[in-house]
């Protein structure tokens, strides 16, 4: 996914829909080309800012409540996809 949107809703929607990575349009050209190669090789490229947003979605207070209203709306399948991505697994057939 190459986009201008960097809010959690867009990130999670794209990943849940099968995006193999998530980059912002302001990403330098050489990094976009490297990311395309990473996807081809099975990777899931994303900027550190985007990766931090994904990590934050999994960090919960001791009460177990979600840290963000955006994560409250995730389906069980979307949570499963995010957990697998966080573990470094890639989505099959999405190159």
Provide structural commentary.
It is a single chain. By secondary structure, this protein is mostly helical. It contains five helices and two strands, in the order E-H-E-H-H-H-H. It has helices at 8-16, 29-40, 48-58, 69-72, 76-86; strands spanning 2-3, 23-24. A two-stranded parallel sheet has the order 1-2. Helix 1 (8-16) links the parallel strand 1 (2-3) and strand 2. The model has no long low-confidence stretch (mean pLDDT 80).
Per-chain topology:
Blueprint: E1 2-3, H1 8-16, E2 23-24, H2 29-40, H3 48-58, H4 69-72, H5 76-86
Parallel strand pairs: 1-2
Key traits:
mainly alpha, 5 helices
Task: Please provide a brief summary of the model.
The chain is mainly α and 95 residues long. The chain is built from five helices and two strands.
């Amino acid at each position: 996914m190459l986009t201008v949107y960097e809010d959690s809703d867009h990130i999670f929607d794209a990943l849940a829909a099968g995006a193999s990575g998530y980059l912002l349009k302001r990403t330098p050209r050489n990094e976009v080309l490297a990311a395309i190669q990473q996807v081809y090789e099975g990777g899931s490229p994303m900027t550190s800012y985007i990766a931090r947003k994904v990590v934050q979605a999994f960090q919960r207070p001791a009460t177990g409540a979600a840290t963000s209203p955006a994560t409250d709306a995730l389906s069980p399948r979307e949570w499963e996809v995010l957990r697998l991505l966080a573990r470094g697994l890639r989505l099959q057939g999405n190159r």
